Amino acid sequence: MTMSEVAEVLQAEVLVKGDGLLRRVGHVMASDLMSDVLLVDEEDMLLLTSLASDQVLRTAQIVGAVGVVVVNGKPLPSSMVNVANDLHMTLATSRLSKYDACVAVHAARHPL
Amino acid sequence: MSAPGSQSPVAPDERPGLGESGNDPLVLLELIQRLKVRDVMTADLVTLPRDASMQQAQELMRQKKISGVPVEEKGRFFGLVSIDDIIRALVAGTIHESCGRHMTTKLVVLEDDMPLSFALRYFDRYHYGRFPVLNRDRRLVGIICQRDINRALLVELTRELQRLESVSVQRGGEGAAGSLYLLREFPICKYDFENAGKAANQIKQVLQEKKFATKVIRRIAVAAYELEINLCVHSDGGVLSWQVSSGRAEVIARDAGPGIEDVEWACRDGTSTANEWIRSLGFGAGMGLVNVRRVSDEFEITSKKGSGTTVKAVIYIEGGVA
After folding, report:
1. Nearest to B100 by CA among B78, B117, B69
2. Domain assignment present for B14
3. Do A86 and B193 make contact, defined as CB atoms within 8 angstroms?
């Protein structure tokens, strides 16, 4: 699935298209702990998080993530959009919870 | 106001632009990523209102020795009068008519917080002599021409060269032998979460532009990011430096305090002295130093309670630098 398709599955609003919208999402990581994110060695990873901070985007750039989806419909600080633009990082928000977002992506990739 | 119009194009140059050849020095690539348009543009603007005549614009351009005048009222940007517009007005006999009527309105503009590399790409793509600069509120805040860029790069490169030369002398002339490829230092402030991570982001961007292997970039970037966050979270402030010389990249974090009482304990998985606030920001899980060690080929840490800490991570670059 591409990042664009995942965003659709998550009913997410894409705030910054960045460079990732057409990239393939091979792995999804759901975490609020950036130290854990930095341990992942997959380049085609989508980050689902309920943490709304600039550091989420900076961490995502370091690990080469496809994009970031902030879950739980959290309001984002305006600086996040600026940082995402600077880093060309795809940024979206979804009203789904982190758990439901994981279920939705899994169900879309592995339909019953 | 985004389509290219008669914005006084300059002669096209077929050579690759700065940052596009893959052979540009890393210092230069890093500079054009770090500098923003606002750092380079001319902010002290000479402008005219829409009802000023084209003749007034011509006289102003002559007096100020400039090749274009923005037309603006109370910060709202309407267009630009260029030399082309003046020539057309002279030929058509409309030099006494208003700028608002004869200015160029279809313009390509830049935003003040774009990186300089973006502006350079615009100069290459559109071949215009200048670009108006707007802020996020779409207010005119400056104008940028190639002369501004040349001047800014010369100033920054001179500063960088002086710093590199002083470092080379301190290191016994290692750089003079040609092995020093790049060295740069970033001051990191305690609890400055607005900027924490910026240095590592810039390091990664430069390595990507220089087309280092993806896995090498990732390891250097992770080490730099973890050490930068550590400086921000645990130290009283310090310096993150990195250098790429033949065959190896070194990332070094130095601070002047408060020091680590038990270094061995600090390097264990899951041990941290971070408070709840730091943890709420997604850090302080006690994985930082462990992760730096994981991505490094060589790892050293020296510290003493009450004085500073130095952490050095070395990553071997297989096949040398690109």
Report:
1. B78
2. no
3. no
Candidates A33, A58, A82; nearest CB to B197: A58
| Residues of chain A under the 70 pLDDT cut | 111-112
The structural domain count of chain B equals 2
Q: What is the pLDDT of residue B208?
A: 87
- For residues B242 and B281, state if they share a domain: yes
CATH number at residue B293: 3.30.565.10
A-chain CB neighbours of B222 within 8 Å are: 38, 62-63
- Count interface pairs A-B at CB distance under 8 A: 73
Residue B144 CA to residue B60 CA, distance in Å, equals: 18
Tell me which of A61-75, B5-19, B151-165, B206-220 is least confident. B5-19
Q: Can you give the CATH number for the domain in which B70 is found? A: 3.10.580.10
CA-based nearest distance B295→chain A, Å: 9
**Whether A58 and B283 lie within 8 Å, measured CB to CB:** no
Rounded mean pLDDT, B45-52? 94
* Average pLDDT over every residue of B160-185: 58
Same domain? For B119 and B194 the reply is no
Same domain, B214 and B292: yes
The chain A residues in contact with chain B (CB within 8 A) are 32-36, 38-39, 41, 43, 49, 51, 53-56, 58-59, 61-64, 79, 82, 86-87
* B198: nearest CA partner in chain A: A58
Task: Give a yes or no: residue B4 inside a domain.
Answer: no
ipTM of the complex model: 0.91
| Minimum-distance CB partner of B226 among A38, A43, A79 | A38
Q: What is the pLDDT of residue A42?
A: 87
> Do B191 and B306 sit in the same domain of this protein?
yes
Q: How confident is the model at residue B6 (pLDDT cuts 50, 70, 90)?
A: very low
Task: Mark whether B191 and B238 lie in a shared domain.
Answer: yes
What is the Cα–Cα distance from A60 to B218, expressed in whole angstroms?
11
Q: Which domain holds residue B42?
A: 26-149
Decide if B10 is inside a domain: no
Query: Is residue B138 very low, low, confident or very high in pLDDT (cuts 50, 70, 90)?
Result: confident
Q: Looking at the structure, do residues B198 and B103 belong to the same domain, yes or no? A: no
Q: Is residue B252 part of a domain?
A: yes
Choose among A32, A51, A87: nearest Cβ to B201.
Answer: A87
Nearest CA in chain A to B192: A55
pLDDT in tens, B298-307: 999 999 887 8
Domains and CATH numbers, chain A: 3-109 (3.40.1390.20)
